[in-house]
Amino acid sequence: MNTQDCYAKAERILSEMSLEEKVAQMLQLSEKADTKELFDKFKADGTLGSYLHVLGEETGDFLENAYQSKLKVPPIFGIDAIHGHALLKSATIFPSQLAMACSWDTDMVEKVGKVTADEVAADGLNWVFSPVLCIGRDLRWGRIDETFGEDAELISRLGAAIIRGYQKNGKVAACAKHYLGYGEATGGRDSYDTEITERKAREIFLRPFKAAVDEGCMTFMTAYGSIDGESLTVSHRYLTEILKEELGFDGFVVTDWENFISMVRGQHLFESMDDACVEGIVAGNDMSMNSPDFYAALVNAAREGRISMDIIDNAVRRILRVKARLGLLDGKRENPLSRDIIGCDEHQQVNYEMSVKSTVLLKNNGALPLTDAKKIAVLGPNATDVRAQYGDWTYFSHPNSKPHETAKDCTYTVLKGISEAYSDSEIIYAQGCSVLGDEDAQTSERWMNEALDAAAGADACVVVIGDVLKQNGEKRDRANLVISGRQIELVKRVKELGKTVIVVLINGKPLELGELEPYADAIVEAFNSGDMGGLAIANLIKGKENFSGRLPISFPYSSAALPCYYNQYDYWHGSKYVDVPKGSPYPFGFGLSYSNFVYGEPALKETVLKRGEKTELSVEITNDSANCGIETVQLYFRDKICKMLTPVRTLIDFKQVTIPAGESSTVTFTVDTERLGYYDRDCKYCVDAGEFALFISGDGKNFKEITLRVAE
Ligand code: NOJ
């Protein structure tokens, strides 16, 4: 059905709806104690707009009742398919968003979106609450693992790619979240206030959301927090004026979980739910996630004339249009995709490829590739911990934590991956310690001694450490980003035995690595690597695969020396803290491989342009090694003299190129003067005349610079 037909169908249904039916469309419910009564009522009468966290096999009754109802409008089923349809145990569970971002590979990320949406649709659901487009610049924030990292350009490109993938089969809507500024909350505190101005929002935080609108993302989710003291949930400026009117978003906006309740109980903005709901809808939210009182509050407000019917109609219209575009208003239909595709081999192959590309080599003193080792000790708490490897938002953790859930068999932990990749070697395993160090002293000593015994007889040791779910996620911000428990001691004591030590990090966010580094011959960062992570890591360690991952986020020297993201302003009173080195030990863009890429000098086709013109920048790259590899070529700029402060560098483009051993390749970028601008203090985008530095880099540490002049 084309857009016009969809809109006409939505309009016809809207014209037949009662007030109660309209408001019911604007509500989404999950099943829990305080929603139970309403949940059951709507389940029976079939008029609710949406459910969340209902899995496929449970959808039948809801649909049946909807098709029996007067309007025959089925609910849209939303699910937190954050890295795969991972709340369903049998689904393909991909690396976390942060891990996927290490690939810098938009095609792969799009494929992940497509596989996820196909599994979601096969499960009878039609809406994924993904992607997270928050900018992950405060590493203390508990949800860093859910972001695509710290840079607006990279997030915009990966975000658009995954939305493209999600919406490709035409049966699933994506949801750009959390709009806006959620990741930048002061102190990294989950859902707290963000002290940014509209100018800064435009320069950085809005960019990925604009990319989502341009990609046709069908829904947006309102963040929990506030910007400069105004709750996003009642921000007419951000929700209506900027998102809907200026950016032209034509889908619908859902609040996050109980945002309306939060405005009464948490943010102290309203005395009553009635006022909170009315103001939230007037501001531009179209659907309330949970907040069961919303239904009665809005129906009453409309009856009493406290909210206009036009506002309600506009919200319902947006919801119905999305439903029409997903084919939900076409009448009863069979599930179009077979459940057999869920977790199938073809999907797990995409997952494996994604995991290979999501893994970053941070350090290698020659220990890797580990080609021949007769006896390998696999040590460390995260070598076998599927929960830690998955990270957040899986069947272990949501909707509620499930401590007794067991892992599925097909998941490759690092131990399983190493055992398969090195099937001719002897593999011994010992845990060594826990991540949190919360075991009793006797157990702790026993674990450490068992690991040291295992290491003593091995040719090489792969020590898998990092963090666990308790240290990541909603409401789990960390003030201290050290590697916890006795994990560093384990690495140190294994190294003191004179062994080759390969450290694999499985963790949700960048941690301080300074204390660990002297004892590690190689460091592999895998973040939360999904079902196939262990096999990908093992094949990379062995050299069967080459590393190509690049960091989408900078690592800290110290938890106290934050922020450490790369695109900061110059630090003009001295250049660093007196007691911590400047910058980041492993910055944005960094990553090693088994190839060695040598950059020539960049060249510009024209060195002087007028505003609005474009030119080409080329650079020759030689793979001076015996291994074919993928290089991620990064293009940054800086306006040399600007009326507003400008970051030391800003990423404007990147390209990936595969270069066979010993060969060269020329990579060409189009440089558009329109991309070299900034927002002035009146929030106006300007490109000034003058000199611009363009930087080319393959690792975020070494840069080749060339100057472009923009004439008056
Ligand atoms: C809370 C989270 O902030 C959001 O990301 C998620 O999609 C919803 N709840 C639904 O679970």
Describe this structure in words.
This protein is α/β, with parallel strands linked by helices and 712 residues long. It has three domains: 3-339, Glycoside hydrolase, family 3, N-terminal domain (TIM Barrel, Alpha-Beta Barrel), CATH 3.20.20; 359-561, Glycoside hydrolase family 3 C-terminal domain (Rossmann fold, 3-Layer(aba) Sandwich); 597-710, Sandwich (Immunoglobulin-like), CATH 2.60.40.10. The strands form seven sheets. A six-stranded mixed β-sheet has the order 12-17-16-15-13-14, sandwiched between helices. Strand 27 and strand 28 (704-711) form a beta hairpin. Helix 2 (19-25) runs antiparallel to helix 13 (294-303), helix 6 packs antiparallel against helix 15 and helix 17 (414-421) packs across helix 20. 55% of the residues are buried. It binds 1-deoxynojirimycin.
Tell me the number of structural domains: 3
Mean pLDDT: 96
Rg from alpha-carbon coordinates: 26 Å
Name the bound molecules. 1-deoxynojirimycin
Q: What low-confidence regions span 5 or more consecutive residues with pLDDT below 50?
A: none
Strand order of the largest sheet: 12-17-16-15-13-14
Q: Main beta sheet: strand number and arrangement?
A: 6 strands, mixed
- CATH fold category name of the largest domain: TIM Barrel
Gap between N and C termini: 49 Å
How would you classify the helix and strand content by structural class?
Answer: alpha/beta
User: What proportion of the residues is helical, as a percent range?
Assistant: 25-40%
In brief, what are we looking at here?
The protein has 712 residues and is α/β, with parallel strands linked by helices. The structure holds 1-deoxynojirimycin (NOJ).
